[in-house]
């Protein structure tokens, strides 16, 4: 059996490596606490689950769904964008439900990338942007993000020969892994850049509702001209603790949305209808859980930031996202510092290099672990040194 290049070229999945390390320690009897994985620990709010249970009883929901989703679900998504961001979308042309946003993020490369084409991808970043590019036969050109520019890529620095070959620019704010946020000013420069080089902007925004200190993230779609050049991926996963239910959406440019719909209709048969109904309940029902969860995350964030400063890290508390991005103390690399915390405190953090070469010098901590485990890990870190 001969595996295809695209499979042989796959890097080992980041979290598999992390899990292996944890397993080895645990096998030795250690109580390992992991800040490794970004997956909300709190349950989906009960009224959302109740809606799924009811929808599951209805035989009409047992059949194949439509690839482009229930029209009511597309309308609900458009209404949510209107209410939350004052962005008006045509539910039939500018909205497409996804089987979790990761699915659309991976498949959209098939719409824009031919062999040899370039995708511009921020580094460090969510690995799916470059892997989707590779699956389509394209090449990734990494845009380094540094603390000096607030972890926004410097578009001026992209050689014009590269920018002209580029078909996609990938962006993600609030950002995973850095926790950085972007404003409309930056997005306006992005729209200008996209027009100049005739490329599509794919903005990934699943953390728009996970924010602290009263900060309210913006949507790329709020930017004048955004829908002429781009699309935005969003998801219910992080907003409503729904990672396990697999439901998200893409909105924006009608040509791009239609292309992705046509690709997908040849690959999958849409989101189970009961899950779409559940998602409508999430988007239209009581929203108090969002603020409640953000209060919990903010408390965790503050404890983690204090403990990291105690062990010598430089940290800017993130305004949004589920991640604390910490600069390791002098004399350490990402990996050597992560190894020290595992060896000396049985605490797992992710080396920043797992998200790309510009992640060197950083570690990422996800604040999605139960309060008592987080407290225990923080107590261990506070005892170090
Ligand atoms: C969590 C996450 C997603 C994916 O979420 P889905 O569960 O697939 O909707 C997408 N992008 C980033 C950057 C994420 O962190």
**Count of helices?**
15
Radius of gyration: 21 Å
Percent range of helical residues:
40-55%
Q: Helix and strand string, N-terminal first?
A: HHEHHEHHEHEHEHEHEEHHHEEHEEEH
Count of structural domains: 2
Strand content: 5-15%
| CATH C-level class of the largest domain | Alpha Beta
- The helix-and-strand class reads alpha/beta
The molecules bound to the chains, other than polymers, are: pyridoxal-5'-phosphate
Uncertain residue ranges: none
- Describe the global form: globular
CATH T-level topology of the largest domain: Aspartate Aminotransferase, domain 2
Strand order of the largest sheet: 2-8-7-6-5-3-4
Number of strands: 13
At the fourth CATH level, what is the homologous superfamily of the largest domain? Type I PLP-dependent aspartate aminotransferase-like (Major domain)
Distance between the termini: 52 Å
CATH architecture of the largest domain: 3-Layer(aba) Sandwich
Most strands sheet: 7 strands, mixed
Average pLDDT, all residues: 96
Q: What are the SSEs and their pairings?
A:
Elements: H1 5-8, H2 14-27, E1 33-34, H3 46-56, H4 71-85, E2 95-98, H5 101-107, H6 109-112, E3 118-123, H7 128-135, E4 139-144, H8 160-165, E5 166-172, H9 184-197, E6 200-204, H10 226-229, E7 230-235, E8 248-252, H11 254-264, H12 273-284, H13 288-310, E9 314-315, E10 323-327, H14 334-345, E11 347-348, E12 350-351, E13 362-366, H15 371-383
Parallel strand pairs: 1-11, 3-4, 3-5, 5-6, 6-7
Antiparallel strand pairs: 2-8, 7-8, 9-10, 10-13, 12-13
Helix pairs in contact: 3-12, 4-12, 5-7, 13-15
Bound molecules: pyridoxal-5'-phosphate (PLP).
Pyridoxal-5'-phosphate binds at residues 38, 100-102, 126, 172, 176, 204, 206, 235, 237-238, 243, 248.
């Amino acid at each position: 059996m001969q595996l295809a290049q695209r499979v042989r070229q796959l890097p080992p999945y980041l979290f598999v490596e992390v899990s292996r390390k944890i397993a080895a320690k645990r096998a030795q009897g250690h109580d390992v606490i992991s800040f490794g994985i970004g997956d909300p620990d709190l349950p989906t709010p009960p009224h959302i689950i109740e809606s799924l249970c009811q929808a599951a009883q209805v035989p009409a929901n047992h059949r194949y769904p439509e690839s482009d989703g229930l029209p009511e679900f597309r309308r609900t998504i458009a209404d949510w964008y209107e209410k939350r961001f004052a962005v008006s979308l045509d539910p039939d042309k500018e909205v497409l439900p996804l089987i979790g946003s990761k699915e659309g993020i991976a498949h959209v490369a098939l719409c824009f990338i031919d062999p040899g084409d370039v995708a511009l991808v921020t580094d460090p970043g969510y690995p799916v942007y470059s892997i989707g590019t590779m699956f389509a036969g394209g090449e990734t050109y990494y845009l380094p993000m540094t603390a000096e520019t607030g972890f926004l890529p410097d578009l001026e620095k992209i050689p014009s020969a590269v920018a002209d070959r580029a078909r996609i620019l990938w962006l993600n704010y609030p950002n995973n892994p850095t926790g950085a946020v972007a404003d409309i000013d930056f997005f306006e420069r992005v729209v200008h850049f996209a027009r100049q080089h005739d490329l599509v902007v794919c903005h990934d925004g699943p953390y728009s509702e996970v924010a602290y200190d009263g900060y309210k993230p913006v949507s790329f779609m709020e930017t004048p001209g955004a829908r002429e050049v781009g699309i935005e991926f969003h998801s219910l996963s992080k907003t409503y603790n729904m990672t396990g239910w697999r439901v998200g959406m893409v909105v924006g440019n009608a040509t791009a949305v239609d292309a992705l719909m046509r690709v997908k209709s040849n690959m999958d048969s849409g989101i189970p209808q009961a899950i779409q109904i559940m998602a409508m309940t999430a988007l239209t029902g009581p929203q108090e859980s969002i603020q409640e969860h953000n209060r919990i995350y903010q408390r965790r964030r503050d404890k983690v930031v204090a403990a990291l400063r105690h062990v010598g890290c430089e940290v800017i508390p993130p305004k949004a996202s589920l991640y604390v991005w910490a600069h390791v103390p002098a004399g350490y690399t990402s990996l050597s510092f992560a190894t020290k915390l595992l060896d000396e405190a049985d605490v797992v953090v992710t080396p920043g290099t797992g998200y790309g070469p510009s992640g060197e010098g950083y570690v990422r901590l996800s604040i999605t672990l139960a309060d008592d485990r987080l407290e225990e890990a923080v107590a261990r870190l506070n005892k170090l040194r």
